[in-house]
Specification:
alpha/beta; 8 helices; Nucleotidyltransferase, domain 5; six-stranded mixed sheet; 39% helix; 6 strands; globular
Length: 222
């Protein structure tokens, strides 16, 4: 496994593929790793060099640096220009049972399994390799700012998860999920102390928020 480091020039000028044809490689990224509620989602994207350049010209970069409107506008363009893309997720139950790293890896694998062809090279955002991936891979620090395929994956994963959480906010009112997407904001923590947990909260993440015995069960538990 090779770990790539260095400066972060413009996405369109990057060559994170190590000299391989970009369309033989896939970028993978996740979103929701640090949330208290809901699944972790991952996306895998394959782009040609031309598609990566076109998306960079359209403003593609790390999803965290984009406004919600810009992210939403990029989604149909990514789906149109990508050679292939896939989305996978791992539930709060899996996160509690196996830990966040294993659950994140499961989400990534499920996204990759939705690609029609396994990539010759997998480029993983961050420093941690996908341990169960049988093929070649590299990790790329700040990959969502340095690799078009990872940036595209970060946008798809972010938009897919946000849309899911907005739907779940209607099912579980009172937690402000539509405002914080399940992250541990003051509002979310206060709601947990008042209402208790839902079946989609990550109980293993709540030790510093709720007492060991837990509050009264939320009405959503019924």
């Amino acid at each position: 496994m090779t770990r790539t480091t260095g400066a972060s020039p413009a996405l369109a000028q990057q060559d994170p593929w190590g000299g391989r044809p970009p369309h033989d490689c896939a970028g993978v990224d996740e979103v929701g790793r640090g949330c208290l509620f809901g699944p972790v989602l991952a996306a895998a994207v394959v782009l040609t060099a031309e598609a990566a350049a076109s998306l960079a010209a359209a403003g593609l970069t790390d999803s965290k640096k984009l406004s919600p409107r810009r992210r939403a506008a990029l989604v149909p363009l990514i789906r149109q220009l990508a050679t292939a893309w896939g989305i996978g997720q791992a539930s709060a139950v899996e996160i509690d049972r196996f830990g966040i790293r294993c659950a994140t890896e499961s989400a990534m694998l499920r996204a990759l399994q939705r690609l029609p062809v396994a990539p010759a090279l997998l480029i993983v955002d961050g420093v941690l390799p996908l341990r169960s991936w049988p093929g070649k891979q590299v990790t790329l620090i700040a990959g969502d700012s340095r690799c078009g395929a990872i940036a595209a994956a970060s946008v798809l994963a972010k938009e897919e998860r946000d849309a899911l959480i907005r739907r779940l906010a209607l099912r579980f009112p009172g937690y402000g999920l539509e405002r914080h997407a399940g992250y541990g904001t003051v509002l979310h923590r206060q709601a947990l102390q008042l209402l208790g947990t839902t079946p989609l909260h990550r109980c293993s993440f709540l030790g510093s928020i709720l007492p060991a015995t837990g509050p009264q069960e939320s009405p959503h538990q019924a």
